[in-house]
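Final paragraph of the annual report: two paired records, presented back to back.
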Amino acid sequence: MSAAAGTQTGSGSSEPTAGAPGSPATVLSNLQTAGGNWRSFAQVGPTYADCSAPCPSASWEEIYGVAYPSLSGNATMFDLDPKVPYADALFTAGLIGQNSPQIPDSDHTLLPTLHNFTYDAWFYVVTPEVTQALEFDISLEMSGVAGMTFGHQCNLRGDGDWDIWNNAAKQWISMGVPCNPAPGWNHVTLQMQRQADNSLLYESIALNGTTYTLNYESESTAAPEGWWGLAANYQMDSDAKGSPNTTYLDDFSVTYW
């Protein structure tokens, strides 16, 4: 496996499209493709700071345009080869603002109007028995206003439940609802909201057609100076043995309004 991230073998589009007639929503589709503006890093405790390739703690890569396994014929493979236990690979797609050539929001007028977000994707785990966790996030940073990460973690090797990231406490909180991916492809849909006071509302998690209502609130934090943007994140966490792992994403979209 290559230590360099971002191997391109296919193409796709993440251009925005309007929602259904009468709906104010904008849908960014096919985010799993090369058009998703992906960047990637390793993260290792205790600080879990981003480590760019080449990184001594892990190597990783994305391969785009995968026809099998795939639902659309245009899936992306995410590969993680840890060098230490519990090493993570973070894959982040810039949607608006920084790291997004499609929607730069250079005048800083779009992000303050957005309050509702839907993260929708299909994922395939090759070896769930060595996958510590999978993370599905939306990150929003508005310099001088607020910063927030809507973090959702499928804790496969822990308690087997969904965890939610509490931004103020900087810790994962178990929601007590199961995350038991089926063999093959799994469909996850996450609903979340930035409330009027910039607090986070985790509304619901749906996995393979079963919806769990959360309505869990978390305070936001201060955004780093100069940071402005919206990103979708996908993260793979290795187990205590640092076992290699491969997963796939397909039909990945983010909707906002």
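The closing record of the year follows.
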Amino acid sequence: MKHGITILILHLFITVSLNAQNYQLIWSDEFNGTFVDQSNWVFETGNNNGWGNNELEYYTNRIDNAYLDNGNLVIKALKENYGGNNYTSARIKTQGKFSVKYGKIEARIKLPYGKGIWPAFWTLGDAISFPSTGWPKCGEIDIMEMTGGGTYGDKTIYGTAHWDDNGHKQAGSSYRLSSGSYSDGFHVFDIVWDSQKIIWHMDGIQYYRIDLIPTLSELQESQFILLNLAVGGNWPGNPDITTVFPQTMVVDYVRVYQVVPTGVKNTESLPENIYLEQNYPNPFNPNTQISYSLPRSEYVQLRVFDSIGREVATLVNGLKDAGKYKVNFNSENHPLPNGIYLYRLVAGGNTLTKKMVLLK
């Protein structure tokens, strides 16, 4: 059993706590598979000129640097010559797969240690992809960062928000363990985020809050999630002779919750279960209609994949009220060749998949 009694107690605590606040789990990765789920995560690779921080690692998509082990994601930093760099590691993100605006975003992580070691669990605004926006206008929320080494480095984590106000601005705070280090065991790092504030917690203890009203509009837009383990850089400095390799950042889970509406009216007209219908017409050319039903408010992802599992279109990605929905899919917008395609609905912990055929 994964983490045995500890995870059971943690789950019960989270369930009671979140229910009291009317939170509902809308997305998660429990890392229980064989490989990193690329329907959830995108690997960023290369050294990207130090990723803006003069970092020393080369990020790869190799299983040497990111893999699943016993229900955990392991991101491993290695000291090796690769791509012209002296270190390798991994950086993954949900960009284009999952984004969220407001809610509770949390992860349970066992951190690495040592001088020049820089793990991070954070978010970036979707608007970073827009050339006219970029960073820091897109907004950034660092849910957890740690710069290892020294007297307090391995026992201190940081939570920070970044935005633009005629130049880069930031605000944040830190939480220091009274004993031991973050590499001794797992800890839960989260933010609770709404239109008025962001609150940072470590193991449920609040250690920082920032108010977003009235000026921080870039922190009130959708963001995607990142996990990475950097080596060196402007903030942590570079590894020294005390730094041990390899170093690992071990992630038990990443979970996202949102507040859902209550008091739905006319419940007799709502479906009893989440349901995905067969598209019509099928075969189709070039348009088809996909219908689905929700008995309650859910975060919905409706995506189309080709026959070998590559995503070709995202039709829905957001919170939807209870009810029945119809989505039109035009294959010419992508465009797609003849063939068999799969469309998949993910909502409320359910994953439903059906097949459709495109004939031109």
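The domain at 4-259 is CATH 2.60.120.200 (Jelly Rolls). This concludes the annual technical report; the extension proposal builds directly on these records.
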